[in-house]
Amino acid sequence: MKTLSNAIVATESQLGRAFNHPEVTRSSLMRELTARRVRITEQRRLIIGIIQDSPRHLDAATLLDLARKKDPGIDRSTVYRTIGMLKRRGLIDELDLMHIDGEKHYYEVKTNHDHCHMACFKCGGIMEYTSASFEKLKEEIARTSGFDIRVIRLEAGGVCRKCRATSPAP
Amino acid sequence: MKTLSNAIVATESQLGRAFNHPEVTRSSLMRELTARRVRITEQRRLIIGIIQDSPRHLDAATLLDLARKKDPGIDRSTVYRTIGMLKRRGLIDELDLMHIDGEKHYYEVKTNHDHCHMACFKCGGIMEYTSASFEKLKEEIARTSGFDIRVIRLEAGGVCRKCRATSPAP
DNA sequence: ATATGTGCAAATCTTTTGCAAATTC
DNA sequence: GAATTTGCAAAAGATTTGCACATAT
Questions:
Q1: Residues A51-61, mean pLDDT to the nearest whole number
Q2: What's the pTM value of the predicted model, to 2 decimals?
Q3: Residue A1's pLDDT band (cuts 50, 70, 90)
């Protein structure tokens, strides 16, 4: 099993028709925050910009590193506090990615369609899967249980198609 | 928001038809371990027995406390190592319960049907929801993506029916 | 005899917090 | 000038590890 400081986010094109992202749209965090009259400081703008633009899921430490490249004076606690603010407002989702690399959390801008994250135990890659079935299940759960779902997280761990092909016997 | 050292697991009967557990069966950990020729020491038997018999999801610290009531000499690391062993063998599932009470993890014996855990941000209760749709979604994801799913976790956070009734305006 | 499990204590890793200074409204 | 945000340094919480000793096969 590989150790992966940097998990790979496979894109739709990389994995052919393994993916299925119907209309997955991310909102603009800045716009949302402005609409909600949240004070956007320089540091927040920087941190949020990094989350928003990142092609992969970032953990707090990586986010701090990236932020420091632009503003070396930025503090770890500011990063955590900004993450906390975005979480509380439901603008980002927190992921564990099956703890494939430690206990840290990863973040991504909330999309209009929730999706499944799959972490490969062999290569450490992270794949995403979006489908209408997930939205339907969400709706079914809410309707049947009377539970008002504010956040939902579907994560899987296993072996990706590529790795299965490489080493056929699991 | 309540602080909850001990989250409540609502049962099917408590929540009326909010639940739907088709054939959710837990395997016997002892039997599984024996079949796999895993050495079962006294301490492991004790720890595993507690996990198996617990009506609610336990975190490592609680598990340690309970184990110490029967064997005060048992060590924290033994508990963690036993949990790790069970996890690696896919006999227990690890839950975060939306980090409703800190960053700890909770454990439960793997069932033959995966289910959704819902954590209420107001009362801290944990509800479970099992449905054939989830199994179907799992199957769809595996089939479409070619990903061999070994573990899967569906967790939601929000407000349970009871709490919604109590304080209507979210 | 050899492999495996355990206790202990310390280390590690991630995240949170109290408080004084700085910034913004 | 009142409220909010930040840096700093320390604390807290959860989990892991190295190693010597004990136990099981």
A1: 95
A2: 0.89
A3: very low
Does the structure show a pLDDT above 70 at A13?
no
CB pairs under 8 A, 24+ apart, for A33-38? A33/A89, A33/A91, A36/A89, A38/A85, A38/A89
Asked whether the beta carbons of B51 and B63 are under 8 A apart, the reply is: yes
Count of all residues that appear for chain B in the document: 170
**C-alpha closest to that of B32 among B98, B116, B88, B73:** B88
> What would the pLDDT profile of A58-93 be if each residue is shown by its tens digit?
999 999 999 999 999 999 999 999 999 999 999 999
Q: Dihedral of CA B23/B28/B31/B35: which sign? A: positive
Q: Give dist(CA A115, CA A127) in Å, integer.
A: 10
Per-residue model confidence as pLDDT tens digits over B15-73: 434 455 667 788 899 999 999 999 999 999 999 999 999 999 999 999 999 999 999 99
Residues 6+ apart with CB under 8 A from B57: B7, B9, B95, B97, B106, B107, B108, B117, B126
Dmax over Cα atoms in chain B, in whole Å?
55
Of A145, A150, A161, the CB nearest to B161: A145
Buried b / exposed e over B85-113, threshold 16 CB at 10 Å, is bbbeeebbbbbbbbbbbeeebbbbbbbee
B103 CB below 7 A from strand C atoms:
yes
Closest approach of A49 to chain B, Cα-based (Å):
25
Tell me, in Å, how far CA of A52 is from C1' of C21? 31
Name, in order, each residue with C-beta under 8 angstroms of B16's C-beta and a sequence gap of 6 or more: none
Interatomic CA distance for residues A35 and A29, integer angstroms: 10
Chosen for mutation from A89, A110, A148 (greatest number of chain B CBs closer than 10 Å) is A148
* Residue B73 near residue B17 (C-beta atoms within 8 A): no
Contacts of B34 (CB under 8 A, 6+ apart): B40
Span CA (A109) to C1' (D2), Å: 33
Question: Could you give phi then psi for residue B89, rounded to 5 degrees?
Answer: -85, 0
- What is the length of chain A? 170
